[in-house]
Specification:
The protein has about 500 residues and is of the alpha/beta class. The chain has one domain: TIM Barrel (Alpha-Beta Barrel), CATH 3.20.20. The radius of gyration is 21 Å and the shape is globular. It binds 2-(hydroxymethyl)phenyl 6-O-phosphono-beta-D-glucopyranoside (P53).
Length: about 500
């Protein structure tokens, strides 16, 4: 017998604009980074493509912040490259069919993101793009038709490319105003359709990537990353404040890439190192967003990397005035932290460093660790005592379509069952968890690798890594399983 979920618990799924919508150059949308990013795989990076000042094509690895465009180069779509996000899974044209399927599963919440570049194609436009505003209005109305609450990410890794090029991106303070204008526009536009908002998806990735690069990340990289983050914190806080003024019922979440870090041994050095890992990678962002000020350890981090952060008095006031209402995060994996030598290395995304002998790893090297989710929920709830949402969780896996068209994804069901049980345990132990939106409720383009075959969905999309396929939607076994989970409010997990 499973432990109980509270009445009114929100069950659903999550997608992001650039990974699902496609229609990248339709109805006035501006370009974003993923439009100039190629496909990759577990061992081949995605590349951002550009044309240099002499007109020669070039590419550089796209993840993280250490690679920079050569002087005078501009991002460009190259003719002989394939860009998986251009069409993605065509949610832009098929959202009615998709939302109908979500409703059939019984969703009470659907997380999606608004593409900033559909609303302000260049980011600094004077007027919003009406076609973009209309599109999301119909998406939200379609959700409402089925009683589905939209949960909207304002930014999901998709700053308009024009802002990157004209202003250098988030290291430039001007981005704060552009973001706030965009946020205010959508708050006013959708104030009666949307209640739940997330300001920046996985905001902490910026620091985590640097940490991952280890010694290759220079002090200058840290300087830029922390300033970039500071601008996002202020932008987030100002948006929250304005949003609350527009509609006091609005509920705002931050969005943290939630990794559970474990010390590799009981050597006090490992324990301390692990604590510092939590501070740098998790608390640095969520303390500012939840408490309205930097944690005491921030000084240590800045000192370590010789960072001189530009913070104004106004920034400090803004941060305090725009704290979040709920703590929302993604959860996929845990990671081991040790100062000791280790033989077996984990190499999947943020599951790096020493391999955890107590866990199994996915085909992409991500540690499968449901208890890590329970640990994360309990630890974070104790720190902030804010309602929490798990807004991403899922298993990227290869799926096989049987001859009769069915997809038997028992591995995905097992993954979600274990994580739902972990959430139930945390609730039992006092955590105020209010929602669960599984990642990629419909197959979509992987953010990390650009693949289609790394599938997360309960709904299969017929499209391959070269872009071939009918884009037809087919429910997998997990679809019917999740439907029953929702109908029983998490009681029936078999
Ligand atoms: P994929 C790493 C890199 C990029 C996005 O990831 C990430 C992470 C860490 O988990 O996070 C989220 O598609 C993100 C989604 C993404 C999902 O994880 O690389 O918010 O956009 O698709 C899964 O397998």
């Amino acid at each position: 017998m499973t432990k109980r979920f509270p009445e009114g618990f929100l069950w659903g799924g999550a997608i992001a604009a650039n990974q699902a919508e496609g229609a990248y150059n339709v109805d006035g949308r501006g370009l974003v980074q993923t439009d100039v990013t190629t496909g990759g795989s577990v061992d081949k990076p995605r590349y951002a493509t550009f044309v240099d000042k002499d007109g020669n094509p070039g590419k550089l690895p796209s993840m993280g912040h250490t690679a920079k465009l050569p002087e005078g180069a501009t991002f460009a779509i190259l003719e002989d490259e394939y860009y998986p996000n251009h069409e993605a899974v065509d949610f832009y044209h098929r959202y009615k069919e998709d939302i109908k399927l979500f409703a059939e599963m019984g969703y009470s919440v659907f997380r999606l993101s608004i593409s900033w570049a559909r609303i302000f194609p260049n980011g600094d436009d004077k007027e919003p793009n009406q076609a973009g505003l209309d599109f999301y209005r119909s998406v939200f109305e379609e959700c409402r038709k089925y009683g589905i609450e939209p949960l909207v990410s304002i930014w999901h890794f998709d700053t308009p490319l024009a802002l990157e090029e004209a202003y250098g991106g988030w290291t430039n303070r001007k981005l704060i105003d552009f973001y706030v204008t965009y946020a205010e526009t959508i708050f006013k536009e959708y104030k009666d359709l949307v209640k739940y908002w997330l300001t920046f998806n996985e905001i902490n990735n910026t620091v985590m990537f640097l940490d991952m690069f280890g010694d290759k990340a220079t002090d200058q990289d840290y300087q830029e990353a922390y300033q970039h983050l500071h601008h996002q914190f202020v932008a987030s806080a100002r948006a929250v404040k304005i949003g609350h003024d527009i509609n006091p019922d609005f509920q705002f979440g931050n969005m943290i890439c939630g990794i559970t870090f474990y010390p590799g041994t009981c050597d006090p050095k490992d324990i301390l190192e692990n604590q510092h890992k939590w501070e740098q990678n998790i608390f640095y962002c969520s303390d500012v967003q939840a408490k309205g000020r930097y944690g005491s350890y921030a000084k240590r981090l800045w000192k370590e990397h010789r960072v001189e952060l530009e913070i104004t008095e106004q920034d400090k006031q803004d941060l305090l005035a725009g704290t979040i209402d709920m703590y929302t995060f993604s959860y996929y994996m845990s990671s081991v932290v040790t100062t000791h030598q280790f033989d077996d290395t984990a190499s999947g995304n943020f599951s790096i460093g020493a391999k955890n002998p107590y866990l199994t790893y996915s085909d992409w090297g991500w540690a499968h660790d449901p208890m890590g989710l329970q640990y994360y929920l309990e630890k974070i709830y104790d720190r902030y005592e804010l309602p929490m949402m798990v807004v991403e969780n899922g298993l990227g896996a290869f799926d096989t379509v049987e001859e009769d068209g069915s997809i038997h994804d028992s591995y995905r069901i097992d993954y979600h069952r274990a994580h739902i049980q972990a959430m139930a345990e945390a609730i039992e132990n006092g955590v105020d968890l209010i929602a669960y939106t599984t990642w990629g409720c419909i197959d979509l383009v992987s953010a990390g690798t650009g693949e289609m075959r790394k599938r997360y969905g309960f709904i299969y999309v017929d499209k391959d890594d070269a872009g071939n396929g009918t884009f037809e939607r087919t429910p997998k076994d997990s679809f019917y399983w999740y439907k029953q989970v929702i109908a029983s409010n998490g009681e029936i997990l078999e």
